[in-house]
Design brief:
The complex is a heterodimer.
Chain A lengths: L3 E4 L2 E5 L4 E7 L6 E7 L6 E7 L4 E4 L2 E6 L4 E6 L8 E7 L9 E2 L3 E6 L1
Parallel strand pairs in A: 2-11
Antiparallel strand pairs in A: 1-3, 3-8, 4-5, 4-9, 6-7, 7-8, 9-10, 9-11
Chain B lengths: L4 E3 L2 E4 L5 E6 L6 E7 L6 E7 L2 E5 L6 E5 L5 E5 L8 E8 L8 E2 L3 E5 L1
Classes of the chains: A mainly beta, B mainly beta.
């Protein structure tokens, strides 16, 4: 089955700097890669996703890149703000996400004011 | 437009008891997936329901069962509770024709004593 590895497990950055979180996946049939932000006591919130037919997607301060050959994808957050502090999860799925999501182990991002 | 809702918010049960958790999907969504999230870990897929049928199942024992109703809402039942079943139980809903974004509810925190 699919295996998703996520690094780093913790990340601290100064406010205004950029943060990068990386994930690798094992199943070459996976074609949908969402990123979720989870704040304390809440469910995961979908913040951005990328599909296997594109290499990069941006939404304001957030971007995701995908390298299908190397089977890895990354989340980039620029101009970080205190409200970006949370746990971030990457995930992978077949069939455009119409099957189970396999999650990474999470990255705790702390923005230092 | 209401997002995914789950009830109850918190639940405390004794080992050996049975529990039922409920989920109402986001408006317009017809597919419901259930995940278990242990403390400090990523969500683990339990099963997915579509058209009132279990469409896909993860590596969880038969003690975990579910149901989907004609209005697309869903229930997760766990029998013979074990201490290890203590976790945050998340429901995600989705719909689509090509790609299926999964949106999560706030979860139900189950504690087994």
């Amino acid at each position: 089955g699919e295996n998703v590895e996520q690094h780093p497990s913790t990340l601290s950055v100064q406010e205004g700097d950029s943060a990068v979180i990386k994930c690798t996946y094992s199943d070459s049939a996976s074609n949908y890669f969402p990123w979720y932000k989870q704040e304390l006591g809440k469910g995961p919130q979908l913040i951005i996703d990328i599909r296997s037919n594109v290499g990069e997607k941006k939404d304001q301060r957030i971007a995701v890149t995908l390298n299908k050959t190397a089977k890895h994808f990354s989340l980039h957050i620029t101009e970080t703000q205190p409200e970006d502090s949370a746990v971030y999860f990457c995930a992978a799925s077949r069939n455009g996400g119409n099957e189970k999501l396999t999650f990474g182990t999470g990255t705790r991002l702390t923005i230092i004011p | 437009d209401a997002g995914v809702t789950q009830s109850p918010t918190h639940l405390i049960k004794t080992r050996g008891q049975q529990v039922t958790l409920r989920c109402s999907p986001k408006s317009g969504h017809d597919t419901v997936s259930w995940y278990q999230q242990a403390l400090g870990q990523g969500p683990q897929f339990i099963f997915q329901y579509y058209e009132e049928e279990e469409r896909q199942r993860g590596n969880f024992p038969d003690r975990f069962s579910g149901h989907q109703f004609p209005n697309y809402s869903s229930e997760l039942n766990v029998n013979a509770l074990l201490l290890g079943d203590s976790a945050l139980y998340l429901c995600a809903s989705s719909s689509g024709t090509v790609f299926y974004e999964q949106y999560f509810g706030p979860g139900t925190r189950l504690t087994v004593t």
